[in-house]
Amino acid sequence: MDYAANLAMTLPELVLAVGAIALMLVAAWGGPASTKAVSWAAVAVLAGALVALTGPASGGGDAFYGLYRADAFAGFAKVLIYIASAVAILLAPTFFKRTAGADLRPEYPVLILLSACGMGMMVSAGDLLTLYVGLELQSLAAYVLASFMRQDTRSAEAGLKYFVLGALASGILLYGISLVYGFTGSTLFDEIAGAFAATPLTGDTRSLGLLFGLVFVFAGLAFKISAVPFHMWTPDVYEGAPTPVTAFFASAPKVAAIALAVRVAVEAMGPAEVQWRQIVIFASLASILLGAVAAIGQQNIKRLLAYSSINNVGFALIGLAAGTPEGVASVMTYMTIYLAMTLGSFLVVLQMRDADGQPLETIASLAGLSRTRPGLAAALAIFMFSLAGIPPLFGFYAKFAVFYAAVQAGLFPLAVIGVVFSVIGAYYYLRLVKTMYFDEPTGTFDEGDKLEGGLIAVAAVFVSPLGYLAIPALSAWTLAAAASLF
Question: What letters, b where the CB count within 10 A reaches 16 and e where it falls short, cover 251-278?
């Protein structure tokens, strides 16, 4: 394959990389005055990357001798990543403008673009080194974003915690990669799969080395998706980071990390399905249970949503545990609906401001919201009921999809336990609804931004029963994406 064809398959990442570098130069020359122009230009760059997906970038096959994969699965994940990244850029100006001591600089959208470029490499990785480079590009940008409000000690603390624990996770992942390479002689996914298929895990030195490599690789990936027991950074970072950054962390990187874990499990370590399935099932059930129980005592809504994201990752992993094309399709369906629910919830959090325009983050501040801002209360209720998986909202279909895939794969006990644990998680979602509709108002919220209000309406409509109209198209797209991995 010639060089031009390889570049055509990596066109979305090229658009993002060139766009980020160009906008970085504009930011350096224009200074803070260029922030608005750079932000809108960054959204345009993301739109350009979406357009670039319509060519060989979403179905061209392998590029650069198998290091990069342009297939339907990567294309699907990138659509979700770019949409979430664009929303994170659009949310920032109003938040920073109305928050005391906050200053939005043009570096913010540039960092989002660089992070999106890294996430694109992650979901298209066909080699462990491509995986690692993409993951580190995404992570380095995320560390800076977490501490973007330099005058805020919480933001600085969030960035430091994320950096230290992220470095630990990267070390674990890199050690796992070195073990896999040492015992297979390759970092390419196809050759790793061949080595696993040719080496029965019987307990000899080679098979034990491969098994330990598998465990360490999945441990490193578990940190990136904030699955238990590598979830410890999530509540503190979500609470301390600026709210638009928290919305970004809860959406785009989560989709990228889940998609990366799916690709590694199916393509690189498919022959060792029995071994990695045990890890995935444990992480799934532990994440569902801890995410449900730990959220009950939270008083800060951003921390509650952090535990909610841990809980939802657990449900997504049920689909991965199935290890079938239908299971992978259910994971992508779940992440699509999760993206709308989570972004919608954080958009409502951005609207939580007192009469002076200062942000409110406590659950108690939602008291009586149904009487002061009925539209906002209705939207948040839709998101909470949907996250809880209560029919007829679209979030119910997300959970149904992963449970059905697990049952079809013969994992009936896993599906039953997941259903039982989901009942626990419903408690804290319903507590928010009770606070909004039955408690006495403690104050009035400031009128929100029209752009935020429009995005909330779009997300609420998508996760409402009207979202079921999208099932035929969504099912066909996710099944086609999953089939490209098998």
Answer: bbbbbbbbbbbbbbbbbbbbbbbebbbe
Instruction: Please check whether residue 86 is in contact with residue 116, taking contact to mean a CB–CB distance below 8 angstroms.
Output: no
How confident is residue 1, by pLDDT bands cut at 50, 70 and 90? low
Taking only the tens place, the pLDDT of each residue in 331-350 is 999 999 999 999 999 998 88
* DSSP classification of residue 63: E
Q: How is the chain split into domains, by residue range?
A: 273-485
User: In terms of C-beta density within 10 A (0-12 exposed, 13-18 middle, 19 or more buried), how is residue 117 classed?
Assistant: buried
- Distance from the Cα of residue 68 to its chain's centroid: 21
Compute φ and ψ for 289, nearest 5 degrees: -70, -50
For the chain, give the number of residues: 486
Dihedral of CA 311/327/175/285: which sign? positive
For residue 123, count CB atoms less than 10 angstroms from its CB and return exposed for 0-12, middle for 13-18, buried for 19 or more. buried
Give the whole-angstrom CA distance, residue 354 versus residue 99. 11
> How far is it, in rounded angstroms, from Cα 372 to Cα 360?
15
Side-chain-facing half-sphere of 158: CA atoms under 13 Å: 28
CA R_g for the chain: 22
End-to-end Cα separation, the chain, in angstroms = 23
pLDDT on residue 440: 80
Contact call for residues 342 and 255 (beta carbons, < 8 A): no
pLDDT of 140-177, one tens digit each? 999 999 888 877 788 888 888 888 888 999 999 999 99
Query: Which residues, including other chains, have CB under 8 Å from residue 13's CB and lie 6 or more apart?
Result: 49, 117, 120, 121, 124
Q: What are phi and psi of 104, to 5 degrees?
A: -85, 125
Helix 107-123 / helix 72-98 crossing angle, nearest 10 deg: 160
Compute the distance between CA of residue 360 and CA of residue 431 in angstroms, rounded to an integer: 18
Residue 99 and residue 358 in contact, taking contact as beta carbons nearer than 8 Å? yes
- In whole angstroms, what is the distance from residue 23 CA to residue 40 CA? 11
In 31-71, alpha helices (H): 35-52
For position 369, what pLDDT does the model report?
A: 81
Whether the model pTM is above 0.90: yes
Axis crossing angle, helix 72-98 with helix 325-351, rounded to the nearest 10: 10
Here the tokens at position 78 are: 């990138």
Task: Please tell me the distance from the alpha carbon of residue 57 to that of residue 38, in angstroms, as a whole number.
Answer: 26
Give the integer Cα–Cα distance in Å for 245 and 322.
Answer: 32
Residue 115 pLDDT level (bands cut at 50, 70, 90): very high
